[in-house]
Amino acid sequence: MILDSFKLDDKVVVITGGGRGLGRAMAVRFANCGADIVAAARTVVQLDETAALVRNLGRKCLTVPTDVGKSDQCDAMIAAAIKEFGRIDVMVNNAGIGEDSFGKPIEQITDEEWHRGIDVNLSSQFYCARAVIPHMVAAKRGKIINVASGYGLRGGKHNYMYACSKGAVLQLTRSLALTYADHNIQTNCIVPGIFPHNEAMMKFFKGGKFIPIGRPGQDEDVGPLAIFLASDASNHVNGEMIIIDGGGLAGGVVPTGVAPGNPA
Amino acid sequence: MADSKTLPEGLKDFALNGKAALVIGAENPLGRVAAITLAEAGAKVLIASQDAGTEAALKEVAKTIETTGSKVLIQVQRAALRADLSATVDLAVTKLGGLDIVVTALDEPLYGPAETADDSAYDRVFESNFKTAWMAFQEAGRVMLKRGGGVIVNINSVLAERGVPNATLYCAAKGAVRNLVRALALEWARRGIRLNLLECGWTAEEGSIALEPGDFSEKLIKYLPYRRLLKPEEIAGALLYLVSPAAGCVTGESIAVDGGLLGRG
């Protein structure tokens, strides 16, 4: 029965950046499918809010305040998850930052801003994968889900750290996928398009009117894709990037809404 | 049929209860899996063939589907004929009460040196793999645009993304469908129709060159990240994700079910 292969009953799912946005939406969706959650992020108040939502659905939630840009903190977070649950079935590398250097001319970006962005967006995914892989190899199964961005596949003005770190996430995904294919560990990548998390971002992205389907992504759109990639339904999907952007990357050589000839 | 009482809340938008679905090429191994998957998830299904003379195969698929409790109908047709496709789409609307989902599982491989391929080879490969898909999308769109939307999934191949020597026309036709899906997805994006592809790795299906004993299949298996061919039933999860409301924000895209092959190649 096909729908049974999507079930995640009693799976243990670690989510970085689990205090808000896509991370929180995924945590709630995983809990709604029967999984227990380990939520990692810097801000304790936000982690507690996510935990309340998960527990309200009858599932367990361990919160681990973590700066994922620091490898020792990633190691400690994975160790805490193993201590609490005894195993990790799914690792979701979702934490990311953009605003520090987004939109600034290159000469105004400091070394610290560059390194901080690369650490949080890219190195964190490497650190968490490195820490979780031995447990998954021992268990002879596992799922790693990395969150990249459409900007990992396209360039943008003044967009250096974000585009570079997210593009590298795609490559990290492929190399993990190929290395651990023999260990029954699947690594895949979610590539979200525009997902505004507040009014300011919604305004910056003009309400998403340039997105082909006519609306920006909502955090809840990503949950089902994460469920698919975490479940047995995707056991032959590996090293793949799945783009969830309302059609954006299907086009791009003319502005959205513009077409030659006389459109219907 | 998906039992909504036992389905976890988080999986409800993967269910297809009450949806009307058409699978074209249901006699093919991947089309067969698609038809059974849609029915298991709750859809009513019209299973139509790619080629004539396939009644027995369709009946076998229908028999399997009947065990799911979902409604199933059969239509033997030549999908390369516009009139047949058109009649099949109309039949789906009449007998299933609508048309929410169309899956095309069309395939005709051709292998051999480019310099010896004659024009009839070109016509045959492009007709089966590309033109038929194009006509099926048009016919589905004719109904879906009027009804306010729908979902189309083309079951395709990793050959849509890469070249393979001695498979020039086949790769070209598969790649043409890939870009057709991009362009058509954009054209219909604001009219409620989503189009996507599944790109299957080398598959263990009857007649596949990957199953023929010899140098090619031996070296191929060692090269595959999973060191084995894809079993047709392993596409079921990705197919269900793409056709269901769970993928409402995904259009013009593809999901490769290949064990990591495209990540390597």
Q: Would you give an account of this structure?
A:
Chain A is an alpha/beta fold and 264 residues long. Chain A has a single domain (9-247), classed as 3-Layer(aba) Sandwich (Rossmann fold). Chain A has helices at residues 21-32, 44-56, 71-85, 111-139, 161-179, 199-204, 219-230; strands spanning 12-16, 36-41, 61-65, 90-93, 142-147, 185-192, 241-244. In chain A, helix 1 crosses helix 7. Chain A is globular. Chain B has 265 residues and is α/β, with parallel strands linked by helices. Chain B has one domain (16-264): Rossmann fold. Chain B is 41% helix and 15% strand. Chain B contains 8 helices and 7 strands. Chain B has helices spanning 29-40, 55-66, 82-96, 119-147, 168-187, 215-223, 236-243, 261-264; strands at residues 20-24, 44-48, 72-75, 101-104, 150-157, 193-200, 253-257. Chain B has a 7-stranded parallel β-sheet, sandwiched between helices. In chain B, helix 4 runs parallel beside helix 5. The radius of gyration of chain B is 18 Å and the shape is globular. The termini of chain B are far apart. The mean pLDDT of chain B is 96. Chains A and B meet through helix 1, helix 5, helix 7 and strand 7 of A and helix 5, helix 7, strand 7 and helix 8 of B.
Key features of this structure:
heterodimer; A: alpha/beta; Rossmann fold; seven-stranded parallel beta sheet; B: about 260 residues; 7 strands; about 40% helix
